[in-house]
Design goal:
Layout lengths: L2 E5 L2 E4 L4 E8 L6 E8 L6 E6 L4 E3 L7 E6 L4 E6 L8 E9 L12 E2 L3 E6 L1
Parallel strand pairs: 2-11
Antiparallel strand pairs: 1-3, 3-8, 4-5, 4-9, 5-6, 7-8, 9-10, 9-11
Length: 122
């Protein structure tokens, strides 16, 4: 079992930056891959990024602007967001799955955080 808690959401102007954190408990990151998703009201959940011990993966819409990382000693994942756009406004969720492979589908993730709101003003 893994418990996830996101933090760091808030309001930022377009072009600004914001960093999200996802604290995990229940086990270490060893053998776990982390993912970030986001959702706008009325829209489907969208893959954002994923990170394992050695690799990262990004959605095309955020590539070059967002950076995903992890601190294994603290069992924490991060999503650093730069050059934010109004279209980035969403509730951001972190997720975890057993295994080392990076996945883009929500069905591949076993555990989810409660989400944190990110609002980007124009």
């Amino acid at each position: 079992q893994v418990q996830l808690v996101e933090s760091g959401g808030g309001l930022v102007q377009a072009g600004g930056s914001l960093s999200l954190s996802c604290a995990a408990s229940g086990r270490t990151f060893n053998g776990v891959a982390m993912g970030w998703f986001r959702q706008v009201p009325g829209k489907e959940l969208e893959f954002v990024a994923a990170v394992s011990a050695f690799y990262t993966m990004y959605a095309d819409s955020v590539k070059g602007r967002f950076t995903v990382s992890r601190e294994d000693a603290k069992n924490t994942a991060h999503l650093q967001m730069k050059n934010l756009k109004p279209d980035d406004t969403a509730v951001y969720y972190c997720a975890a799955r057993t295994g080392t492979l990076l996945r883009r589908s929500r069905e591949e993730y076993e555990w989810w955080g409660q989400g944190t709101q990110v609002t980007v003003s124009s």
